[in-house]
Amino acid sequence: MSRGTAAWDPPRGRLDEVRVTGSMATTKLLLATSDLLEVEGTAEEVIKELENARRSSPGTLARLREPESGAPLAVNAAQVVTVRPGDE
Fold it and tell me: How many separate domains does the chain show?
């Protein structure tokens, strides 16, 4: 494989040599609308992000990520009813 052809080209080695170790922590959020969201991060990390958004100016959203796709997800902290660790 030539350098620069892959979406991510490690500094040394090939793309297929990159190994993922461990599992990603997730957290589940229950919203006031009864929707259940699962996001990346430990419960402590997610709670901190929600608290920071809540303390900021009105309308500030907590910026989180979906676990499977890594897609950004913005959550209104005022709508979160419960926070609990995701399934392991």
Answer: 1
Phi and psi angles of residue 79, each rounded to the nearest 5 degrees, phi first = -95, -5
**E strands present in 3-88:** 26-31, 36-40, 62-65, 72-75, 80-85
How large is the greatest C-alpha to C-alpha distance in the chain, in angstroms?
A: 50
pTM: 0.70
- The string of DSSP letters for 49-60 reads HHHHHHHSSTTP
**CB contact at 8 A, 24 and 39:** no
- pLDDT more than 70, % of the chain: 73
Is 48 part of any domain?
Answer: yes
> Which domain, by its residues, includes 32?
24-85
